[in-house]
Amino acid sequence: MSELTQSKSQTSDLRWHLLTTASALALFTSVMGQGAHAAEDGDRPTVWVELGGQLERIDRAETVFAPDFVLAHETASFNAVSPLTAQRPPRYGFGGEGKITFAPTGSDWTLSAAIRYGRSNAKKALHQQTTTNLVQKTSKYDDPIWGHHAFSTRKVTRFNRADAVIGQSHAVLDFMAGKDVGLGSFGHNGTSSVGFGVRIAQFQSKSNFGFKSFPDPHYSTQAIINDPGAHHHSYFATLKAESNFRGIGPAIAWNASAAIAGQPDSTMLDFDWGANAAVLFGRTRAHGTYSSSSRYFHGSPFALPPPPTDHTTAHGAFGRSRSVVAPNVGGFAGLTLQRANAKVSFGYRADFFFGALDGGLEQRSKENIVFHGPFAKISVGLGG
After folding, report:
1. How would you class 264 by CB atoms within 10 Å of its CB: exposed for 0-12, middle for 13-18, buried for 19 or more?
2. What's 71's DSSP letter?
3. Helix (H) or strand (E) segment spanning residue 11
4. Spatial distance between the Cα atoms of 26 and 20, rounded to a whole number of angstroms
5. For residues 161 and 215, what is the distance between their CA atoms, to the nearest angstrom?
6. Is residue 47 within 8 Å of residue 382, measured between CB atoms?
7. Cα distance between residue 352 and residue 264, in whole Å
8. Is the separation of the CB atoms in 145 and 157 below 8 Å?
9. Number of helices (H), then strands (E), in the chain
10. What is the pLDDT along the chain (384 residues), one digit of tens a residue?
């Protein structure tokens, strides 16, 4: 029985050695075959390093903080400033990018790692104030010297102010393996490649907002405030909110170029274009606090008894986290000027991320994020 087991073991070992030997011979033959083409690609850089930047326009529909009180207390001499205008997020920002691409000699495959980062900040202050002179009779009797009523002039102020600080940032990382699928497909010296890999994305948004308003005449002396017919409103509101997203998922990209002018051994001008898509699986989070108050009374605050006051306050906090799937599509088009192992590229690029952020306050609100704008980059080839 032991001899039979030993015989089967020897037969299995023999088959394993034959398979490994055949595999080694096949791999050696493949490497030798690739080495035969090395002379043809020997002048091609094996590593490309890219650095660039982009002026980005950021489009997103963010929920604004709208307190219950209405600031439509307008007269002919004073128009209240709406706090909603101060909460608009920044529309433009600057981004940077870097990429390293490894192209093995004698192979039509490439490996690349890329990162893009951008941020935008906006600090807004909306201030409105009107000051007028109010002439008031100080005595109901005629002045014994001047023979007429005595009057005094007082300053009356109406005031609104809204302050907001809003910041946004994003980072996108790509790890891709690409293959040249059509050398010369778009004319002489044209290229076309398809890449597969992983995309990692992170977005963050922060908002700080404050508002206060005295839309009715605000007097500087008690004598003027004692007007029994005066109306007094005051409004206050604050908000602190933050939302973010982190996701990872499979990605695919197609890049192509077509020569416009020049020769490979001198200077060439190419037209480049490409498209990309990804499905990001991640988690979105949102949290913050808010408060608002409004106060109103009619008459003088120094009257006895004091006039009745209508005072309304609201405050709260929110916090939530949710798993989401965020599809992503994008593309670019541009021109590249290449000479030897150096390239300079200019173009326009856009990326769309659907449902990536939660921009709501008390309730969840799915928001799309769009980054688009002109870009410029320089590439240097090493090796070869």
Report:
1. exposed
2. -
3. helix 2-36
4. 10
5. 11
6. yes
7. 35
8. no
9. 3, 10
10. 433 333 434 444 444 344 444 443 343 334 334 433 433 445 667 899 999 999 988 887 667 787 766 544 444 345 556 667 778 777 888 899 999 999 888 888 899 999 999 988 888 888 777 776 655 555 444 545 444 444 455 566 777 888 888 888 999 999 999 998 875 555 566 788 999 999 999 999 998 988 888 777 655 444 444 555 566 778 888 899 999 999 999 999 999 998 888 777 788 899 999 999 999 999 999 999 988 888 877 766 556 666 667 777 888 899 999 999 999 999 999 999 998 889 999 999 999 999 998 888 888 888 899 989 999 999 998 886
Identity of the amino acid at 192: S
- Residue 106: which region, alpha, beta or left (left: phi > 0; alpha: psi -120 to 50)? left
Q: Is the pTM of this model over 0.85?
A: no
Q: How many C-beta atoms surround the C-beta of residue 57 within 10 A?
A: 16
Contact between residue 347 and residue 374 where contact means Cβ atoms under 8 Å apart: yes
Q: Residue 289 is encoded by which pair of tokens?
A: 């606090």
Helix (H, G, I), strand (E, B) or coil at 14: helix
